[in-house]
Each structure stands twice: as structure tokens, then as C-alpha cells.
Amino acid sequence: FFAVLTTFLIPICISVGWSSIKSYKKEYMIAFLIRESLMIAASCMPDLSLFHVFPESVLISM
């Protein structure tokens, strides 16, 4: 459920924030795509130890 929710919410977040970004649009998109892939990986982890590693890696990019 969270992977699907993340997939639908990230394009909305990108479109809302796109007008406020004047420079570094490429880096903005790269950061969002990395964050999206880490959030999807965190919600799809079957192993409990990796389930704790991936949410912490999402916080690094913030």
C-alpha cells in the first residue's frame, strides 16, 4: 500500500514545488527520484533489519 501511495504522491510533490525552484532543477529531480526509490524500497522490505536501514537512508537526503 505504501509503495503505491508513494508512487502517486511524488509526482504531485514535484509539480507543486516545481515553480518555486529557480535553479538546480536537475539536482532537485535527482534528489526526489532518489528519495522516491528509497521510500519504495523501505516499504517493500521483507527483512526486518533492512526495514530499519532504508527509512534512515531517506532521512540522509533531506
Automatic annotation (TrEMBL):
Record-listed E.C. numbers: 7.1.1.2
GO molecular function, one term: ubiquinone binding
InterPro entries for the chain: NADH_UbQ_OxRdtase
Enzymatic class: translocase
Signal peptide: 1-19
UniProt entry keywords in alphabetical sequence: Mitochondrion, Signal, Ubiquinone
Protein name: NADH-ubiquinone oxidoreductase chain 4
